[in-house]
Amino acid sequence: MKYSLKLAHLYGDLLNTYGDIGNILTLNYYAKQMDVQLEVDVISLNTPFKANEYDMFFFGGGQDYEQMIVSKDIQNKKQELSDFIEDGGPGLAICGGYQLLGKYYIGADGQKISGISALPHYTDSQDNNRFIGDITIKNEQSGDTYHGFENHNGVTYLGENEKALGTVINGHGNNGEDGGEGAIYNNVFCSYFHGPILARNGELAKKMLLIALERKYPKANLSQQKSLEIKPTY
Amino acid sequence: MTLKSSLAIAAGKSSYWFLHNFMHGGTSLPGKITLSIDPDVLQDLAKNYEIVIITGTNGKTLTTALTVKVLEAKYGAVLTNPSGSNMKQGIVTAFLTNKKGKNNKKIAVLETDEANVPIISEYIEPVAFVLTNLFRDQMDRYGEIYTTYDKILKGIKMHPNATVIANGDAPIFNSKKLPNTTIYYGFNQQADEEQMAPANTDGLLCPKCQQILHFKNRIYSNLGKYYCPNCGFQRPELQYQVDQLLEQTPQSSIFKIDGHQITIHIGGTYNIYNALAAYTIGSFLNVEPETAVNALSDPDSKVFGRQEVINVDGKEVTLILVKNPVGLDQVLQMIKSDQEPFSLAILLNANYADGIDTSWIWDGRFEDLPFDKIPAILTGGERYRDITFRLRVAGVPEENFEQKKDLEKVLEKIKGMPTKHVYVLATYTAVLQLRKMLAQQGYIEGGMD
After folding, report:
1. Which residues are in the Lipid II isoglutaminyl synthase (glutamine-hydrolyzing) subunit MurT C-terminal domain (chain B) (predicted)?
2. Are B56 and B123 in a shared domain?
3. Which of A135, B27, B429, B443 counts the most CB atoms within 10 A of its CB?
């Protein structure tokens, strides 16, 4: 392979609800087609995340108990993760990962659980209700339609310099009120989508890989990579 | 017995008689009718029985069937609930319709849905609770394994004198101190080897200190000889163990429990756990090892019917239900052990009974399939696109790969597959639909009730 990228799978052994691993498998699938060797490290409890050692990250969701444990440990990684994000490093965060990058979310017993405020959103909870079902959104910038499956109690409100990953066409989205789903902040993409999101929406996987390649290889000619055709999978 | 209970039981029995004779079915309605007249009827029905409750995410049905088989070998007829009727109504029906055995010892072995353990525990006095495993099931069911375990514990706590018989390889069953006598079973079939579980494994937090568990021997998922390098939490002493694995094929497994050789006529490591659980329960109720070994080794089609082999124009088509990540992964490991080349069809629906979120297919390691030994692979069902991309990512060779959404066409394709062995992995409603077609074309009798 001509290029190589290193991905940090944040808390991959704790937050892995429903097919999250599929996002990494999908990234690897398209990476190969783009002549990229993708190396994956699980960065979990008590292992530091070093911003300069990684080209991208993936941060999945999990059960309440595991998320609570992660919310404590991730405070030790707050600085490096924020640096990476501010520097334009690409990442994908789903469900719990999405919530933990923000200011806070509400745990199962109603307690407020702190995130790392790397992104300016916050997440409240709904009373005895979950948003469950198939969802379709439209990314306003690219015009791409993304398909997924949402299953969340949390309602997320975006902050300054954050825009939604897409506008809800069918389904509920971040909070069922403002018509947005997910978040984009610098080169970090957040969503509640299961599916997994990258398996159903290969364009997003390609976009993330290209951002990582352009950061790591600023002088390379990536026209082959840019011209990769993503066939519909859903 | 109170008048109310007698009335309730009479109403339930007559409705069963009617449903059974005229409607060809009825496993939960009679119980429902009885319960509507007397909600506490189980108390009367279950009196004088030695009751074993079997619960857990996977393996309830086969563990129950094997346990009945082992116990009947010694004690004659044992009361049990039919496969899948594991909610309260189904259990009431089982007691209502039990034919009185000649034996003196009245034993009931009840497959019980996890959430129903505390509900029925209020009415009965079990001698044992058997805990097979707890994995993430479909998210739209009970959610988290810890919540599910708390529900089971709520039932167990009502009966401190009952014995808990638990899978010792599952860390969660060692996470809470219980006053009950506890018997653990598990695997001890090979020398220790330091390892960690793959990233998409559930339940890896040490329940004592919340660090990641390591393993000295890992059977699958988070089951094995776990230990915590941080605080020393570790697998408890096993009282019954698989101490040797001799041979595994998709149709059978040969292994030893405490030195006694057993052949079960069904593949899959997970089914060895089920046999081990049945052996342990048998021993707990004083069944001698030889009696249990013979009962478990009997190729009884009634017991092993769930994974059925159907003759389709001379092909041996094995139809396997897949419903959650760990189960799927175990089925993939099992069919991999076929010594002959085989064909494979994977049928994915996403109706409520299948699980409406198809993401779980990504937790099955399709990457491990021996694609060079599989000359034909087919995907089908309403959500064939999801499973098709899953297989592409896993590296399926395009020249051997086809997709057919429509199950009629899937069946035609299966008939033309190039190998004698064909495995069909299907979600619940896809199994029903396929079975209906197989019945219409005369390959099997009737549908699945």
Report:
1. 321-430
2. yes
3. A135
